[in-house]
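Students often ask why we bother predicting the structure of a whole assembly rather than each chain alone. The short answer is interfaces. A chain on its own may look different once its partners are present, and contacts between molecules only exist in the joint model. In this exercise we take two input lines together and write out one structure for the complete complex. Read the inputs first and try to guess which parts will touch.
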Amino acid sequence: MTAALVAAPARRGRFAPGVWAAAVFLVLLAVAALAPGLLAHGSPNDADTMAALQGPGAGHLLGTDANGRDIATRIVHGVRPSLLTGLGAVGLAVTAGTLLGLSAGLGGRVVDEIVMRAVDVLLSLPNLLLALVVLTILGPGTVNAVYAIALYLVPGYARLVRVQVRVIRTSGHVEAATSLGLTRLRIIRRHILPNAFAPLLVLVTVEIGIAMVAGASLSFLGFGARPPDPEWGAMLAAGRDYFSVAWWVAVFPGLAITLTVLAFTVVGRRFQLRLEGRTA
Amino acid sequence: MTALVEVEKLTVAFGGTTVVRDVALRVDPGECVAIVGESGSGKSVTARTLLGLTGDGADVRAETFRVDGEDATFHTERQWRAIRGARIGFVLQDALQSLDPLRPVGREVAETLRLHGLLPRKEARARAVELLRAVGVPEPELRATQYPHELSGGLRQRALIASAIAADPPLLIADEPTTALDVTVQAQILDLLEARRRTGTALLLISHDLAVVSRLADRVLVMKDGEVVEEGATADVLDRPGHPYTRTLLAAVPDGTTRGTRLSAAGRAAPRPPREPGDVVLEARDLTKRFGDRTAVDAVSFTLRAGETLGLVGESGSGKTTLARLVLGLLDPDGGEAAVDGRPWGELTAKERRALRRHVQVVYQDPLGSFDPRWNVRRVLHEALEVGDVPKRDRDARAAALLDQVGLPAATLDRRPRTLSGGQRQRVAIARALAPGPRVLVCDEPVSALDVSVQAQVLDLLADLRDELGMAYLFVSHHLGVVQHVSDRVAVMKDGVIVETGPVADVFAAPRAAYTRALLAAIPRIEPSRTSLEATT
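Now the answer. The structure tokens for the assembled complex follow.
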């Protein structure tokens, strides 16, 4: 008799519906950002006071707000400013963080100490407070909100890059390149920078979502996009006043924010798994 | 007599890949059985299956599967737990990973006793100290309160054995128990296992090293690709190996008797003619390097001539890798100097240093770590050729030629190092080192991570390249057999000092330093097999 001691394992499927759904959602976001007209007709600021605060239904899929504007249309048109906030803030933070991390990781002890203590100071301030201070100084607005969010994302990137650089600069392949006789600059450009950057990509996808929420929070508080711009945080803030009579005005923008963060996180995690599987 | 372990037709598969096929194994009380094989042979999986630890997703089948006198075919996790530790002790290779880093080793050892309800907490602690003393841990009361990272590799391994024998199991399974250890420490651990056996404990020893098992085992099973290819009494298997694979394994072991011959199966015939050493290409004068209070390299001097191999032997922490890095100009010495082609690193500008680097190249123990993980072999070689001033359009052809020189097909260019085997990776690393046309090759433990048959091929390749290109080697290794095989001269290093140096035959035949004698005495050997093997071939 040949006995099976343990049941044969189920092969791990490559198909992950959640990841696919998230990816499709991100594609929709991209379409909405590039050509909102494809997903929604009409202007986001078309007010129709006769149709104010209509519930979700046939005429207005997700209902209308207090000015009778179509919420679905506004959400679709709100993708672009939200995404720009996310991409802009993260892009800025990655650039600045990488430069700081590189100089701390490659420079001497003095440079390292100065940069990292400055980063620690930034890190010790509550995120939102820091952003509000910046916006109070610079004045409210979408672009300034991007700077404010970037500022509080910078420390994370700077630290990550520094640690990566520290590990990579003593790794075998950098020593091998050194013993070949490559110049220091070439080693940094070819070996250290690209390898330090790889794990950042995962963080970037996740943090685009976080930056979008931050942008929405600042708009919600009245420091970001100004009315009547269709920005999700501002829409959420406007809907707050009508929540007891017209829940949809606040809920759908809120849902848009939640789903976006979720989609970026799911896809980012997937990247991370891929990357870890690759390096393991 | 009831066998402690008895399996027949044991087959283990992971997701459709069979890693162990039709293995029969029996260990009787008081017996020492060894499973020998190279990586991927299925020896570890076999051992772990005997403890119900095959792993997630394994498909295990057997006709007979009896552990500790009972049919274990349908043992539950609970039943396995009752066996582990109490009936079968398990000793793993890497004691640092196998011991809980957040717990003093004394508690780790005591845990086995408490888990199986053998002793109450207080007595278990006292017994743990006794056990640590029994396995030869000095100052056991102090050591019991220390954490794994505070102990040396040898002490950790002893602690691990102490916890494995705590419940006095009739069978001890040891999976590569000495592989991570220095040779003198290895000898002590083998002594310990032997002493354990004399008290009546059966041993199942898993190893890649025939010499290690030949000292202890009554019977040997040789595994290859998941199957047992040969089985028999140790002396018979070593003296009269029946299977070609066993013969290859035995022949591949480097030592003094193999000097100047080929180790790998392909055409091992005529010994090489002795070489005439050329000009001095590398010189160290009173090289000294300190890290804080510790002197890692202490006034070391040597010369190396073209076409010559200097073996640098020492145990971990002896300073041999630091010395290699000084010679490569990767570290600045605190005293003395290292000169390549008569040009001391210290007297050169940054630009001159870079230019000099191509004359002295390096091959590391871990080739994978020495490649940029994002790059394929083509880019790795192109970068090295770029340094050697090979014009861009010629680089592909030169890269293919280099691969050919190290015995790899040109198709390897598009592979990533991670998808290559250990031996292939080391060949690529050698090809890269050859690319700039070096006069000196520093080999830092180049074969220590490789299986013995692959090690044989790489050692043969290095010897061929030296004869072909007239390079000089500084060959750093902890493995005395390897050093004895490849070197013309040998330098023995201990605590940063070269304690003995001379022609390899002299040093190995008549060691002068006490440390060298201790090192040589500690090497596990398979003497009888070597002579009879040569008689039969």
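Check your guess against this: Residues 452-469 of chain B form the longest helix (18 residues).
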